[in-house]
């Protein structure tokens, strides 16, 4: 079954600069009582940058130059999510007032027993959210019993949410993810997956030197050929040099098999994708129809071809199309609309288990194509 996926991660926008930082500080209090809220989580979505409030409800953190989605969360209160450019941070700090919420007594308690159908739904959620790659299979959700898995509200669909921030351990990449799941939906009939959320990446600081070297190799392998790598190469105008081959993909409906398509591939290589710059020097990604993106420097994973009835190919192919006319693109590979590009194929197969923080940059050259 061909799976399609919206890369619906709520990425922050902007680039990093080690020379430009702001101090983002504040106090978090209860809206009604004014009392401090300790141990609230404050983090920047899809980065390794986050903190918690102290016993007085205070926090402080550095923001590299850029534009961020800030997430404030704690159980028992409505969370806050807002955009914050580092250049606009006020030095005197902020006060955030959270509104308490009543717990739903009818909801199943976390420690209650689940029925077999719930566990089957959990297996499906893990398969389509964490992924079936080696990295995805190695991931563990530490608080999976906090999840609400609904296969009844919408026929033929699995809808997932969580009462708490998901605690996901990814030993292969050396991170624990605190993942605020905003949306997950899988349509069994057409094999269509959408998910979105706000992850914080927490590096494992307990690794030995040997394990840290192995984690670094795994991160490099996960990065090269990824959507993040591809978008950064497009922004820099180096997609060919970085090992990507782009061709036009022509798709039409299959007259015999309803819901399927017939694809034909353009013979001419596309050496670059248009990046348009407006008067404010903001840059926008634009391409029409479908494109086929082939990463030449790595072969497919054996896990990817399971059930396809064919062997491993020496390159990784993915198709992409834009759902909007134009997307703002940033140097770090992020896009202004997280649902602005639909991906099928290899990159679409790679899920949260292969995800890296947007502030990850390879420090050493990876010997690609050598396994």
Automatic annotation (TrEMBL):
GO molecular function list: carboxypeptidase activity
The keyword Hydrolase appears for this protein: yes
Listed Gene3D superfamilies: Carboxypeptidase-like, regulatory domain
Keyword flag Protease: yes
Keywords: Carboxypeptidase, Hydrolase, Protease, Signal
Domain of life: Bacteria
Cleaved signal peptide residues: 1-20
InterPro entries attached to this UniProt entry: CarboxyPept-like_regulatory
Pfam family, one: CarbopepD_reg_2
Protein name: Carboxypeptidase-like protein
Species for this entry: Algoriphagus antarcticus
